[in-house]
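hiii so my PI (J.) wants the whole complex modelled not just the main chain, which honestly fair. so below is everything: two entries, each one labled with what it is. i double checked the lines twice but i was tired so who knows lol
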Amino acid sequence: MSDIVIYSVITVSAMGTAAAIILFMVAKKFNVVEDPRIDLVEEELPAANCGGCGLPGCRAFAEALVRADDISNLKCPVSSSEAMSKIAVILGKEISSQDPLVAVVRCAGSPEYRTKTNVYDGTPSCTISSTLYTGEAGCPHGCLGLGECVEVCKFDAIYMNPETGLPEVIDENCTACNACVIACPRNIIELRKKNKKDRKIYVSCINEEKGGVARKSCKVACIGCGKCVKVCPYEAITLENNLAYIDPFKCKLCRKCAPECPTNAILEINFPVRKQKAEAGAK
Amino acid sequence: MIQTFPRGGIHPPEDKFSAGSPIKVLPLPKTVNIPLSQHIGAPSEPLVKKGDKVKTGQWIAKCKSFVSANVHSSVTGTVTKVDKLMDSSGYKRMAISISTEEDQWEEGIDTSDTLNRNIVATADEIIQKTLDAGIVGLGGATFPSHIKLSVPKGKTADVLIINGAECEPCLTSDHRLMLEKGEELMVGIQLIMKKLNVKKALIGIEKNKPDAINHLSSLAKGFGGTEVRPLKVKYPQGGEKQLIKALINREVPSGGLPVDVGTVVHNVGTAYAIYEAVQKNKPLIERVVTVTGKDLQTPSNFMVRIGTPVSELIEAAGGLPEDTGKIINGGPMMGKALINTDIPVTKGTSGILLIPSAEAKRKPVVNCIRCTKCISVCPMGLEPYLLQQASEYKKWDIVEEERALDCMECGSCSYICPSGRPLLDYIRLGKSTVSKIIRSRKQ
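here's the output for the full assembly
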């Protein structure tokens, strides 16, 4: 009886030692030296793996940061500038500061302005619906309202407003990861510069049809009249293909353009109420 | 012997209500809107402008590239505008609008009904006239016919297949054409045979059209080399690759063309159009359209000028039934819903189908139960459930590996699915994305 115990103890420990030696040698031979800074950098990253940087996940982005000589082209849209400067310290590299961005939905075609002429009962996917036809309201550029942007958002920053049937962005949650911009088959969503107090002023339309045709599709469409271009003191507005565009980096939020727009296609959000408007309302 | 294709296929209810009604000529509409992209390929370029007077059969838009087709005026009148208009694609595209006056035909067009059996045109003339007349595949795919008539260098065709299967339920336009224009059709087939230099032509007709089979069989005796072959009633019997497999037992390779296995397939409508173009000098300005539906007063077949609004056809067939849920351009399997009735009839419109609202709705979508029905009905031997999932989750590499590009969008999988899953919708999306990826890879 005791023999069995002794033999088995000896055999097992001999096997264990042999295996340990082999494993030790293999580990030595195939040792992978990894830069310890990758882990440090990764810790500073948001770990959301959203892919907004264009790389598959935060780990890959950390590796790219460590490998690159010049990291000014590598940008994490989610990280705050503080986190990025910390990473720059870890790596001992220069980093350029970037303006924070926020997603903006450039369509205001709620049923109030854009009457529904038909009912779509196919697959609830914007991409599929967009390949089939212009959409329920007949605007070939407008929002289809099937919520593909909501589905792809990993930060709960976009939701469908049931009243307007349009997606709305929650500025606090939005990290400008670009996922919704890619998901939208009609390129309605754009990343624009984030301003103080989340103030925004933008042309809420991307319809490139001629004025009359665009207006028929939607009452708040940009008709390309060019009034806003003339009134802008900073040359921030350009008119191309019957569509005005406000450059967010040139715009100084003076709000001169919005009241000029005959179709109310320029939206101003989170601004204090205009004085004159309030008076006019009182009269 | 009844022939068929071996793999997959379904048996939807036939519902050919309009099979017994002869082709009627629809009165001229007040205005026609003639789209400039009625075919696969580049849109044609307009040759007329607002205010121009045009005659019936006048050339009004020319093809710009090889894969394109000419367009002709289908009426006499004044061009009112050349602008973007909603067509059956669901988007606004360039179209020429013409207000109609009394018919005045362009010179040189033979408008009589007399049969011209005497073939004098040479092979080159046949192809030139097909190109000039703007003929496209009238089965629905609208691929320019002059391309199919020119066999690429290094390849030979030994048999011509004429597609008279009309496997789509409800549609009867090809059926009526075979019955009423049988002789013209046979001359058209002779013309195609002459151009392709083939000695044999097989006309495939589904068994549910015995009158057409008998009529064409008796006519075929007078024309050398043609033979009518009855086919089993099974959808999609009229699919190009299925028809080739059924009639001559050859398999078109994945990504290949019928000419790779020595054959060319044309629809009966196309053969008739080629007859008219070559023998009568008449461009493709009208076609047979079936207007049908369960609740429709008089399901009919009309000879319609291209560009006629769909509303005129429905009016002529007894008006729009009150409880209509969807209006489909084409057949119930492969057709597409229209969003209004102002949309014009194009070269590819084989039928207008009115579906009552109770039947127009889709089944609610539930989970895939892995019953593999979609695999057993797929005539191309694909796995639709897998393609759908891969496409939904944007796994384009899997979509490509699983040969999504072989899918011909017959819709058998979506028809059979007990879970009502949107199989074809996603496969179509996968197909278009994968072909875009392949194109970008080549650049």
